[in-house]
Request: fold
Amino acid sequence: IVWFDQARIGQTIPIAEADLRRYYQQNQDSYRTEERVQVSHILRRSDPAKKEEARKKAEELLAQLKGGADFVKLATANSEDTGSATRGGDLGWIVRGQTVPEFEAAAFSLPAGQLSGLVETTFGFHILKATAHEQARLRPFEELQAEIQTILQQERVQTMRKAAHFIRERKYEIAAV
Reply:
């Protein structure tokens, strides 16, 4: 019986830097990231009958934020987006095409750390805060080198397992003859 501890064996397999770089070059498309924004929001829902009431409340919240109020506390207490309110309004990272157009336009126009004005969408009135904004980019080789090494080591371990299986099968065929 041949027993492989893949993780242990993989760590012992040396991978030449040239092989790492070749793999990186051949797989660059999978290492591209889209432009993205990490955003939080406060939502005041509006239906046609209560639109002005929702706008007024959103304007009051925006004034408090401009006066130095804590965004997380206001979002937790006042946002009507129950999914993000419990996280202080945090929606995490968004990419283009993921939200309604008005929200997207506002979110992607904000520099990190900035507040939007009121943003009206079909859901109601939003106040957005961008936490971070990253441009589309190709992740550099240096950032990915350890990850690529692990991938190539795992591939080589799989090749070794297949070879061992082939040898074991051939051994039984020869013994049967």
Summary: The radius of gyration is 27 Å. The helical segments are 6-12, 17-26, 51-66, 71-78, 82-85, 101-109, 141-176. Residues 141-176 form the longest helix (36 residues). The chain has a mean pLDDT of 89.
